[in-house]
Structure formats: C-alpha cells, structure tokens
Fold this sequence. Notes:
The protein is built from 4 helices and 13 strands. Helices cover 26% and strands 34% of the residues. A hairpin with a 2-residue loop joins β6 and β7 (54-56).
Amino acid sequence: MGHRAWGAGGRLLVTGHWFPASGNRFWLLFSGICFLTSDLWRLFPGICRLKMGVLMDISKMMDAIKRHPDFDKVGMVLCHNGIVRGTSRDGHGVKGLSVSVDHRKLDQIVSEQKKRPGIVDIRVEIAEDRDLTIGDDVMLLLVAGDIRENVIAVLTDTLNLIKLTVTSKTEYFSD
C-alpha cells in the first residue's frame, strides 16, 4: 500500500503547482511529483509525507473519500496517524522499527468493517518492510461515516484488529 517514489538529492512533493527551487530555478511537476531542495521542503512540510521512499499522503486519502459516490451520507471522518515513538510500551528506548503486513487479512478486515451501519469508506496505508525511525508515520487509517457513534466504534475496532491480526513489528532498541 502507498505510492512508490524515487529520487536522489532532493525531496518529493505531491501537489499541482510550480514551486521555486534554489537559485530561482523552477522545477516542473510531472505526474504530481517534483524534486525539491531541502530548504524548500522545510517551507512545505504538511503537503505530503515522504518516509523511506514511500509517500503516505492523508490529503490524497481524504480526496479519495470525498470522491466516494455516497459521500453525501458522510457526517465525519476520523483519522488515526500512528508514528514511531522513542520508547516501547514497556519503557525501553527505541531508535526505530519495521512493520510487516498480512494484506489478505487487512483486506478482509476493511471489507467487513465497511459493512457496519453508517460506514461509507475506510482507507488504510501502512509503511511496511522498511526501517522507520522516531517520528516516521507507521499507519494512516481513515474512517468515514454518518454519525459519531458509528465512526468512533469502527475506527477503534478496525485499528485494534489491524494491530492484533494484520501487522507485526520489529523494534530496534537504543539501549
């Protein structure tokens, strides 16, 4: 899951605009991807997230939800953005982790959760099979539905099922 992106020496930015690079040069965006210098990237940190070559973009996920044919039934969208923290659950220092995903099980869980009352769409992206460091995005989970009670319950249940049965993580300790 996620969009593969490659680059050398610059940053990737997903947008539909031109932005100046260093030295008053402009880089053309093609297929929504542009290489940017580190200085310019600092000016636009919220446009997208690039972690270890994989783009996890909450804006694109929201756009996909808004294009859903039943979007007029949506009253709220809840988002879970899991990130790598500096300590394990038992308090040991962590310098990073990696996650593997059972895609068959993930598809099954999302399909079942979408059938629950009031749910219009569910989107999940997981940064899998790469070394993540503190602060990197691990998972984005968006649940769109009609009312608060339905959406909160499905976000909670979906997140717990994914964490219990879909993902397995390896933590790299700093101690």
